[in-house]
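sorry for the late reply, my laptop died twice this morning and i had to redo everyting from scratch. anyway the thing you sent over, i finally got around to it. pasting the sequence first so we're on the same page, its 504 residues, then the predicted structure underneath. double check i copied it right bc i was rushing
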Amino acid sequence: MAVEAHRLGLLEAARLLREGLLDPEEYYAALYDRVRRLDGFLRAFTSLKPLEEAVAEARRSLETRRGAPLAGVPVAVKDNIHVKGLPVTCGSRMLERYVAVYDATVVERLRAAGAVVIGKTNMDEFAMGSTGETSAFGAARNPWSPGRVPGGSSSGSAAAVAAGMAPGALGSDTGGSIRLPAAWTGLYGYKPLYGRVSRYGLVSYADSLEQIGPMARSVLDLAALLEAIAGPDERDATTLPEEPPAAVAAAERGLEEGAEGMRVGLVADLLEHPGVDPRAARLVERAAALLERQGVEVVEARLGRDVVDYSLPAYYVIAMAEASSNLARYDGVRYGPRVPPEPWESWNRYYSRIRAAYLGEEVKTRIMLGAWMLSSGYRDQYYIRALKLRRLVRDRLRSLLQGMDALLLPSAVAPPPRLGEAVGDPERLYALDLANVPANLSGLPALVAPVDTVDSIPMGVQLLGGPGRRGEEKLFTLAGALEAATGMKNLVAEPTPAGTSAEV
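ok and here's the structure:
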C-alpha cells in the first residue's frame, strides 16, 4: 500500500476507497495489525469485530452506498452505545456478558452514511470518571505518553484515534467526556447542542446532561461525523426538530477564508481560577492570538465568580442524582449477572451483594451520594438548589453569547496526570471537569481543537457556542480558522510500551 493506513484521515480514506485507489482488504488489515501491536498496552478497545467481517462490510458499503460520504471507512464506538452483535459493557463487570440486540440511532446513521463500526472502545465505568482509569477492563493510556491518562470517560475512543487505530470515533459527553480526552490527545472533539443527536441506544448515566458526539483528527472529519449522526429521532423525544447544522461547509469556510469579523469572548475569570494550571491558561491565550490573526475580534468575557465557583458542585449533584435513578436497574435481576440468591436472603440483601461485587468504587460512591441527595430532608438542600444554579449558568452563558459568536476557554485545566495520580484523589479528579461542565449544564454546544504541545503532548482549547443551528456552525468555522492557523491536523502518536512517543 502506497500510503500508511494509520495516517489517513476519515474523509481522505473515504475518497481513496471510493476512487479505487485504496484496497479495503489491505487498508483494514493494516489498521488491525496496528491494533494488535498497540492495544495490548494502550487498552483502547474492549471488543473488535473480526477482520474478515469488517472487510466484507466495507466492500458491501462501497458497492451499495458508493455516493455516501463515509462509504467503506472504519469508525470506533464507545462501549456505552449499542451496536448489534457486539458487547455493551460500559466498562463494567456488571455488563461484561451483555451483547446488544439492536443498533443505537447513531450507529444506524453511521451505517447509512457508509461507515463500518469496527469495535467498541474502553471507557470509565458507566462513564463515571475523567481519566479513563475506572474501567473494569484496565485503564486506557495516552498514546502520546503512555505513562499518562488519555482523559475520560471516552478514553478508548481518544486513544484509538490518536494512535491511528481508527480515523474517527464516537464518544459521549456528560461533563466533558469527549472534550477532555480530545484536549489531552491532540484531537478535535465535539459536544453537540443538547438534542442535536439522538440518545436512543446510549446507556444512560445522566439523561439531562449527556450527548453523543464525534472525535477525529481534523475539523472536516469531525464535521462529517456530526453530519452523519445528527438530526431528529422519533425514538428520542429530547431531539430537536430543526435541521442539523451544515458543519462541513462551515468548517471549510474557516479553513479557506478564516473567520474575519467574528467576535469571541476570552473567559478571563476561568483563566484566573486557582484550579487552572498556568500552562493551560497560556494555551488559551495562544489560541486567542492565533484567532486574532485570522480576523477574529477577541474581547474579555467574565462568567462571574458564582458561575465559576458553583458550576462544578451543581453538576455533580445533578449527575449523581440522575445516576442513582438510572443505575437502579443493574441489580442482577433486570440487568447484570444471574447469581442465585442465598437461602432466605432478602431482596435488599441480594441487590446489595450483587452491586457490591460487580460495580466499581466510583460508581457505588456516586449512586449512594445521589440517592442520599434525593432523600427526604436533603432534596431541597442539594438537588433543587443545584437545579437553580443550573438555570443561572444557562442564563449567564446565553447572556454573554448575545454579543459574541463563541466563548474561548480551557477544556483541560492542566496537562494530563500520570496514571494513578488523580484517580485516588476525588477532589483533584472532579476538579478536572471545572471548565467543561458549564456546556453540559446549559445544553450549549462546545468544540475542542488542538493548539500547541505542552510537555510534548498536543493539547487543545475549548470553544463554547450559542444555541441553535447557527451557533453550532460558528463553532466549526472558528475551529477551521484555528486549524488553518496552527496546522495541527491528522496528528498521530507512535507509542511504545516503554512509555516513549514521537509526534508524526
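Residues 500-504 have pLDDT under 50 and may be disordered.
thats about all i looked at so far, will dig more tmrw
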